[in-house]
Every structure is written in C-alpha cells, then in structure tokens.
Amino acid sequence: MTMTASDVAHQLQGQIAGDGSVLVTGFSSSENAQAGDLTFAETPQHFETAERSQASVILVSSNFKSDKKTLILVPNARIAMARILPLFFPQENPPPEVHPTAVVAPSAQIHPTAYIGPHCVVSAGARLGARSRLLGGNHLGRDCQVGEDVCLFQNVVLYERCHIGDRVTIHAGSVIGSDGYGYVLDQGRHRKVLQVGNVVIHADVEIGANAAIDRGALGSTTIGQGTKIDNLVHVAHNVVIGKHCLILGQVGFAGSSEVGDYCVVASQSGIAGHLKLGTQSIVGAKSGVMRDVPAKETVLGIPAMPHRQTKRQWIGLQQLPEMINRLRSLEKQVAELKARTDGPSVI
User: Residue 310 is inside which H or E element, if any?
Assistant: First the structure.
C-alpha cells in the first residue's frame, strides 16, 4: 500500500510537521526501516534512533520536533501505531468456501460468507456466523454456536455446546470446552464427576495458542467481552473472567475463581479455586494467589500479598546474610564480655 504522509495523518486524525507529500510504502521498526517506511518513537532515545534511520516518516507524540524527517503528531504514538498497522498488513481473508476435505453435518448452519478450511469437522446443530473462518483442522462439536467475524486458527477444537461471540480470535492448538478436573473419592477410587456445562466466550476476545478453557461442571465457564488471553493459559471449570482483562502466558485459574473487569494477571501466576479478584486488580508475575484480592489492589509473591509488603520482604531477604554475620559477631562479643565479667569460678 502506498499513501502520502498526509493521508496517514488524516487516517489517524493527527497533524503533519514537514512535507506531507512524502510517500509512505510500509511500516517498520527504526532499526530495520528503509526509504518509504513509516516508523514510530515514544521516547527521546527512540526518536534519536528513528531520526538516524532510513525511515521517511516518524509517528510521534506531539512533543517532538525534527528538521530531518516528516513527523506525524498524535496524542499517543503506540495507540496510533496499533490503529495504522492493519492498513499496511491487512489480514488475509480466504473467500467463502467449504473445502472438499471438510466434514459438515447436514443440520449444521453455515453462513454463505463463512470459510471452512481443510480437514475441518462441523458437527450436528453447530452454527457458523457470517465471515467467520475455520482455517484448517478445526473441530466444532455438537450444537456449538460461533458468531460473526470469528477466526479459529489451525487445530483449534471446540467441544459441544460452546458459545463463541462475534469477532473472537482463537490461535492454533487451543482447546475450548474440554472436561473440567472433577473427581470424588468413592470406595478407594477416584470417580469422575461428569462435566456437563459449557464455555461462553463473549465478543472481541482473543485467546493465544495452546490455551485450555474447561467447560463448567454444571453451568458455564465464562470469558468476558474484550478480554485478551495469552498462550499456554489454563482456565478451569466454572471460572468467570470479566470484561477487558489481560491474562498473560502460563497463568492457571483453579475452578470457580472469579475475576472482575479490567484485571491484569501476569505470567506464570496461579489463582486458587473459589477466590475473587476485584475489578482493576493486578497480580504480579510468578504469584500464587491464595486469598481474595480487593478491587484496584496489586499483589505479588507466594503467597501473594500487597506488593509493597512483598517487596519489603524481598529486600529483607537480600539483607539476611549480612544480618546473620552481624548477629554471630554480636554473640561472640557478648560471650567474651560475659567471660571477662564472670571471671574464673571459685569453689
């Protein structure tokens, strides 16, 4: 795609500083930029690198100036970058088709604009909405409901009765609706508790690769609108995650935990079962949450505690070897002083 700098600024509702007629043919990082590329900079250091680069135009916040490059001034350069990237890297949309190798049940409802790729299976009673895409090797279980503009990448599996809202993206290898981990000890053996619920994923959710979201034991496991889930995340049965949350890689939620809206759970953290994370709470990386977290609180550590308290403990641990040496020295001094004070024993 080729546009002028002024065209790009118009798309972003930004302002031009410099020659607005400069042609923009691509988007790149400043380190790899070539003539014709648009790049962006958020900090003075990044801006210096962008000015030295071959890029023709720099996308910046409004507090930068340059006599070397054409600038597009916007309130937030990173947000503007996210908005403009799809123009330079449009998503490939295969034309409506049901691949000859796909198996589609007669009772399935497939919108005429949908795409079903190679080796997909669409079971009885399933529905696939307008412009949705199954890119290959996907399995839609019985009575699954998939909304409009959904993209399931290769080998995504939906178990029966899953509900997927509009504009949801699920990346390769993820499994939605697998059985929750439910067993009871019965006469010395672990008897399986049937998991008869489902998974409900609301609109505008994105789920990374190789995630596993278990079906509810009786009701639904629910992912709220706009939530973004990273790779390798496990969501157990009957978990409820609110709207617009950020769940980073390798996080695990035990059964029936509840997450409020706009929460952040950082990588490799674990949330124990039946707990509640309040709205806008934050869980730091590698944390083990074993109690409820109030709204807007940030917790950290194992067990997770308010982050300032955890950091004080970490600082204390770093000082512990020195404190031990000082204590031993003091003990030695006390012993020597006691020996001099007591003198030789007289019988």
Answer: helix 307-342
**Token representation of residue 246:** 């950020």
Cβ(288)–Cβ(311) under 8 Å? no
Which of 57, 88, 119 is where one domain is finished?
A: 88
What length does the chain have? 347
Asked if residue 135 lies in contact with residue 152, where contact means CB atoms within 8 angstroms, the answer is: yes
| Of 256, 197, 259, residue with least CA distance to 228 | 259
Count of domains observed in the chain:
2
CA 215 – CA 236 distance, rounded (Å): 8
Reading the block at residue 114, the tokens are 């949908």
Taking every pair of Cα atoms in the chain, the longest distance, rounded to a whole number of angstroms, is 108
249 and 230 in contact (C-beta within 8 Å)? yes
* Paired tokens of 343: 């003198």
Is 338 part of a structural domain of the chain?
Answer: no
In terms of domains, do 147 and 288 share one? yes
Which of 70, 88, 106 lies at the terminal end of a domain, its last residue? 88
Residues 6+ apart with CB under 8 A from 213: 174, 175, 176, 177, 178, 199, 201, 207, 221, 223, 234, 235
Place of tokens 């350069």: 77
Active-site residue, selected from the candidate residues 99, 119, 237, 244: 237
Q: Active site includes 237?
A: yes
Q: CB neighbours (10 Å) of residue 45?
A: 9
Sequential pLDDT tens for the chain (347 residues): 789 999 999 999 999 999 999 999 999 999 999 999 999 999 999 999 999 999 999 999 878 899 999 999 999 999 999 999 999 999 888 999 999 999 999 999 999 999 999 999 999 999 999 999 999 999 999 999 999 999 999 999 999 999 999 999 999 999 999 999 999 999 999 999 999 999 999 999 999 999 999 999 999 999 999 999 999 999 999 999 999 999 999 999 999 999 999 999 999 999 999 999 999 999 999 999 999 999 999 999 999 999 999 998 888 889 989 989 999 999 999 998 988 887 665 55
Domain with 188 in it: 98-306
Q: How far is CA 138 from CA 112, 116, 207, in A?
A: 18, 9, 15
In terms of DSSP bridges, do strands 183-186 and 189-192 run parallel, antiparallel, or are they unpaired? antiparallel
